[in-house]
Specification:
With about 725 residues, the protein is mainly beta. The chain has no helices and 56 strands. The protein has 4 domains: about 160 residues, Sandwich (Jelly Rolls), CATH 2.60.120.200; about 80 residues, no CATH class; about 280 residues, Tachylectin-2, Chain A (5 Propeller); about 130 residues, Sandwich (Jelly Rolls), CATH 2.60.120. The protein is globular and about 90 Å long.
């Protein structure tokens, strides 16, 4: 789930001696790469060719932001080629060197460097780390006033292979003033547990964002960024490096300055907000973080009467970034108590998605006399490259310790990430489903969660990232089961698994939720056999919450079942039964005709759970209008829709059965007893709390049902 980021560019300026640069003065163009060759520059390897590129290369997204017709572009031959481009030697004699840079975020592997007397003193890399992004070059500057008088050279290096394994550079100039974003390096003594950096904001939509990265022993440990208009504090945990030294590299607009200090606590304010869960756009029975951004659910596990919900969380801002694992606990899947953050970035990278299990037999050896079996989290360490790591708790999930031998699974392919681990009882070992790249996934096995062997690669067409992997009975028959291999966009494949290979029933990808706002759903592990449910929760991505201290929400937890249908075995989703504990009023719906164009008021409210059965009759369309949001079934196309999304759906003897959950900022529609669903975030008008049914193109019938008014989980 996942944004691209800017490198740790350092600010410097240069003047040159030797070759054609020898007489260059401040404010003079040093290299514009407009010729047929590199002039006095020396090229090695294949990535840069024999001369500048003329814009976009074969197989590359459109390159923009360069000046003139030529630029340095190491994408020649694709991202699998390597090489370097080295300037003549020069003497640093001016306060600023300005340039344009783009390409992949590859610190240490694809970057432009300033080398002074054999030492790398400044470096810059492109902004993009994962699929998507842009090939646009942006202006940046290095400040080298402290290096004036020293001999130096510029090296443009591409030692990276794989996605975004290239760098683009253009228009290198000596100047008395900076251009675009300015970066600097600040030496820091780690005399207190936290390093805080006040990152300036910038104009709306500014790119690249202001950025701070922590470097220890010449290596980037992790980063944080601010893409907003207002200044924000980025905080690094340096408790593992107390007494040592490092650097903070900052990137900020030329007219603004980043402030670096050390702290005893992550935040200097108590950050307490009275009535925090009563805000106008705060969902009242869907999970939201106390503040700031959240996305994928992670590490879903049931342990000793408690459901644990770990989740992707930015502790320091309302937009994606700075990924940690947030943590909340519930005993009923509705009332959540947010805990301290469970996993923070470390030398291996930020903390991306994963899963959690209870190691009942202590296969990993983490128990060491503790009264409780270990809770083990398996997650992606999102450094360069991505790897898989584990952490464990012996105090019922209250605190986690990272395994000293991390990573437990090294880099495999591209952005390999999001491990989902399950226990396979017949073979007495752990099995990991792992995303690789594109629509490719893999299965691995381990006896102890520490040592993993490859089992199988497979394709889930039309999906990417955040796999889930679980077994369910068909129609409740424990002797007839299927395994479900799930992708982030609510598509899945059914098959059988013998502990060594997943064999699909067919190559067909099936789907559950068709709405525009459901992603990266996961299921809880270790739910007791006496309960027997497979329960899932997802990220309702893309919602808007203006003026709120939080950003994004989770779906309602749902029970999953496999049932036989005329089209074959299908996965059904229905809200968990626990939601009935929130009911404060029941309003029965009686049989009523719905005439063409005439609306029928069903209820008013902002927190509702509704069962509604409609018979189409000769109407071409029926609709529910929920606080202004229209949920429609079109009999002419056989599709159920919400704004921006639709799903193919057959009626049952002319009947449409809907279960609808309405919260302050979302609606979830479950059709035909959970055969499919549509999840939608929206912002209703505050004064409109009406719910109505209507028919168009003929007469339909409201057969019956019930509207249930719910109370807030914060009551």
């Amino acid at each position: 789930m996942k944004r691209t980021l800017y490198s740790s560019a350092l600010v410097l300026a240069v003047s040159l001696v030797g070759s054609s640069w020898a007489t260059a003065d401040p404010g003079v163009l040093l290299a514009d790469f407009e010729g047929d060759d590199y002039g006095g520059w020396h090229a090695e390897g294949e990535a840069f060719g024999t001369g500048p590129a003329q814009g976009t290369l074969a197989g590359q997204m459109e390159v923009s932001g360069f000046l003139g017709r030529g630029l340095v572009n190491s994408y020649l031959g694709g991202d699998g080629t390597v090489g370097r481009l080295i300037s003549p030697t020069f003497t640093i004699s001016a306060p600023w060197l300005t340039f344009r840079v783009g390409g992949g975020y590859q610190p240490g592997r694809a970057e432009m460097r300033l080398v002074a007397e054999g030492e790398i003193v400044r470096r810059v890399t492109g902004p993009n780390a994962r699929a998507g992004g842009s090939e646009r070059l942006h202006p940046a500057s290095w400040n080298v006033a402290d290096l004036m008088g020293r001999e130096a050279r510029i090296e443009i290096v591409d030692d990276a292979v794989g996605g975004w394994g290239h760098i683009n550079v253009d228009e290198i100039r000596l100047s008395a003033r900076p251009l675009g974003m300015v970066a600097r390096a600040v030496g820091v003594v780690f005399d207190r547990p936290y390093v805080a950096v006040r990152l300036p904001g910038g104009p709306s939509g500014h790119w690249p964002p202001s950025r701070a990265s922590l470097w220890v022993d010449g290596r980037e440990i992790h980063f944080q960024e601010n893409a907003g208009e207002e200044a924000e504090w980025a905080v690094f945990d340096v408790r593992g490096h107390l007494g040592g030294r490092g650097e903070v590299h900052t990137l900020a607009p030329a007219a603004r300055v980043a402030t670096v200090i050390t702290r005893e606590r992550p935040r200097e304010d108590a950050n307490e907000v009275s009535e925090i869960y009563r805000e106008a756009f705060r969902p009242q029975y869907h999970f939201t973080a106390r503040e700031n951004w959240l996305n994928d659910p992670n590490g879903l596990v049931y342990y000793d009467g408690e459901y644990h919900l770990f989740f992707q969380h930015n502790p320091f801002g309302a937009e994606w970034g700075n990924m940690t694992w947030g943590h909340a606990i519930s005993d009923d899947l509705l009332h959540w108590r947010q805990m301290d953050h469970a996993l923070h970035p470390d030398d291996l990278g930020t903390i991306f998605s994963g899963s959690a299990v209870i190691d009942h037999d202590d296969t990993a050896g983490f128990r060491q006399g503790a009264p409780h079996p270990p809770l083990v989290c398996i997650y992606t360490s999102a450094g360069q490259p991505f790897t898989q790591s584990i952490a464990y708790s012996t105090d019922r999930g209250r605190s986690l310790a990272k395994f000293a031998g991390n990573p437990v699974l090294g880099h495999i392919a591209a952005d390999n990430r999001d491990p989902k681990v399950v226990w396979h009882e017949p073979t007495q070992r752990w099995v990991m489903a792992l995303y690789l790249e594109g629509s490719s996934y893999a299965l691995y096995a381990s006896p102890n969660l520490k040592e993993w062997t490859h089992l199988q690669n497979l394709e889930l067409p039309g999906t990417s990232e955040c796999p889930d992997f679980f077994e369910l009975p068909v129609d409740g028959d424990a002797s007839d089961t299927r395994w479900v291999y799930w992708g982030a966009n609510n598509r899945y494949m059914l098959g059988r698994f013998d502990g060594r290979a997943f064999t699909p029933d067919t190559g067909e990808m099936l789907r559950t939720d068709y709405g525009p706002n459901m992603y990266a759903a996961q299921t809880w592990s270790d739910i007791p056999a006496e309960d027997g449910r497979r329960i899932q929760i997802g990220w309702m991505n893309g919602g808007s919450y203006p003026g709120m201290p939080f950003n994004q929400q989770m779906s309602i937890p749902c029970e999953l079942t496999l049932r036989s249908t005329p089209s074959g075995i299908r996965l059904f989703r229905e809200p968990v039964r626990e939601i009935s504990t929130l009911v404060e009023q029941r309003i029965p719906l009686r049989r009523t005709p719905l005439h063409d164009g005439a609306g029928l008021a069903l209820a008013e409210g902002e927190l509702l759970d509704m069962d509604i059965r409609l018979h189409m009759g000769d109407a071409s369309r029926v609709a529910l209008v929920l606080r202004g949001l229209r949920v429609e079934y079109d009999a002419t196309t056989g599709a159920l829709s919400v704004p921006g999304a639709s799903a193919p759906l057959s009626l049952e003897r002319g009947d449409l059965r809907l279960r609808v959950l309405l919260d302050r900022t979302s609606v979830e529609v479950f059709a035909q007893n959970g055969l499919l669903s549509l999840s939608q975030c929206f912002l209703p008008a505050a004064e409109d709390r009406s719910v109505a049914a209507l028919a168009e193109g003929g007469t339909a019938t409201l057969v019956g049902g019930e509207v249930r008014r719910l109370r807030s989980v914060w009551d």
